[in-house]
Design goal:
With about 180 residues, the protein is of the alpha+beta class. It is built from two helices and ten strands.
């Protein structure tokens, strides 16, 4: 009986040491382009993601065609002229979250380091963010700049006043235990 209790305790300790995996429950990805003639904003709530609290590994995928715009013509131009979403249907990130203490509740400043792929081009990035832990939920937020030329997204000369050379991306993810 004592042996069975020791084995059970050891199994419990090992499973706690592994960390826990979190899956995305609610996502909100927005981008904002501040241009001289017209600001452009779009929102996407169809991302998928997983976070491993033991290793800090995080990955997400955002379907490009799911961005919603105020004007349907903006969405059409975004998908057909700039993002080539038929050829490049998603944007992805694979990396690590650094600076998070999973034993602590509350909001923590963190940094994500990894590979962002947009328009078929991958770039190493470091972005600041926060993680808030409340019970078995995690709330991750980040805001960063993406330069279009870094991802080979070209702006036609006629449109340079309508589209900024860089966009502000905001991620707001809510995770739950897997």
């Amino acid at each position: 009986m004592i042996r069975l209790c020791l084995i059970s305790l050891l199994a419990l300790i090992c499973s706690c040491a592994e960390g826990q995996k979190y899956i995305l429950e609610v996502s909100r990805v927005t981008f904002f382009s501040d241009a001289p003639i017209e600001d452009i904003t779009a929102e996407n709530t169809k991302a998928s993601s997983i976070f491993d609290s033991a290793s800090g590994d995080v990955a997400y995928s955002i379907p490009i065609r799911e961005f919603q715009f105020v004007k349907s013509l903006m969405k059409e131009h975004f998908n057909e002229r700039y993002m080539d979403s038929e050829q490049f249907p998603k944007s992805t990130f694979q990396g690590k979250i650094m600076g998070v203490d999973m034993k602590s509740e509350g909001t923590q400043n963190v940094k994500a380091t990894g590979k962002l792929t947009v328009h078929g081009v991958s770039q190493e990035i470091d972005v600041p963010g926060t993680i808030e832990k409340k019970g078995d939920k995690l709330f991750m937020k980040s805001k960063f700049i993406v330069r279009l030329e870094d991802y080979k997204i070209t702006i036609p000369q006629l449109m340079w006043q309508n589209i900024a050379e860089q966009v502000e991306v905001t991620l707001d993810f809510t995770y739950r235990l897997k």
